[in-house]
Amino acid sequence: MDNTKKLLDEARNHHIELTQEQAEQFVKYYEMLIEKNKVMNLTAITDYDEVIVKHFIDSLSIIKVYNVNQALKVIDIGTGAGFPGIPLKIAFPKLTVTLIDSLNKRVTFLNEVISELGLTDIHAIHGRAEDLGRDSSHREKYDLCVSRAVSNLSTLSEYCIPFVKINGMFISYKGINIKEELDTAKKAINILGGKVKTFDEFSLNENMGRALILIEKVEKTSMKYPRLAGKPAKEPLQ
């Protein structure tokens, strides 16, 4: 069984239809990820079958709760090795995607991937969410903000909600059993102009559960937020 067939079959199992060309882009992405991972820490998951499910399919699982197969302006905060932003762009080419990461070496890798895969309307930016969220060229300019970053939801909301337009959406990829963290974050989400719309828990396979939290932007974010770099993580909004 060739690599693209495994990927196409797994995607189909999750009701995601990919073309042969898209599958080949994913395989090339995997190869670049593994090669670069030899010299810098991008992922602890390197087995091809595991990367398919735990990075690629996981990134695309947002389609279960939100229609990303349309022309949306998307920003991925703390993208790391490019998840979920690059898989979303490959699978849903109508998206215009901005990837944000605070480590320049990762941004260089992401731009190499974008170039090698021939992707358009996607670019990677080096910077911190706290700074870029105050920049008028990014603040409240996106239909959708996504993040698989590991920060607690109060902190993550302060990073992400300022980027989202009114009536846009912030979707946080979290582990299962999220209810307590979500309850703790609700006040912060409200302060930032957001409202929890829903959250959905499901299994990607027998070993991996995922929760997607949908937060709608219902009013403008006060110019007090995001606070200065480091503050949202050290002192999450209560």
Write the layout of secondary structure elements.
Elements: H1 3-13, H2 20-37, H3 48-60, E1 73-77, H4 85-91, E2 96-101, H5 104-117, E3 122-126, H6 129-132, E4 142-147, H7 153-160, E5 164-174, H8 179-191, E6 194-205, E7 208-217, H9 231-234
Parallel strand pairs: 1-2, 1-4, 2-3, 4-5
Antiparallel strand pairs: 5-7, 6-7
Helix pairs in contact: 1-2, 1-3, 2-5, 3-4, 7-8
Description of the molecule:
With 238 residues, this protein is of the alpha/beta class. It has 9 helices and 7 strands; from the N terminus they run H-H-H-E-H-E-H-E-H-E-H-E-H-E-E-H. The mean pLDDT is 95. A 7-stranded mixed sheet has the order 3-2-1-4-5-7-6, with helices on both faces. The chain has helices at residues 3-13, 20-37, 48-60, 85-91, 104-117, 129-132, 153-160, 179-191, 231-234, and strands at 73-77, 96-101, 122-126, 142-147, 164-174, 194-205, 208-217. The chain has a single domain, classed as 3-Layer(aba) Sandwich (Rossmann fold). The protein is globular. The termini are far apart. 39% of the residues lie in helices and 23% in strands.
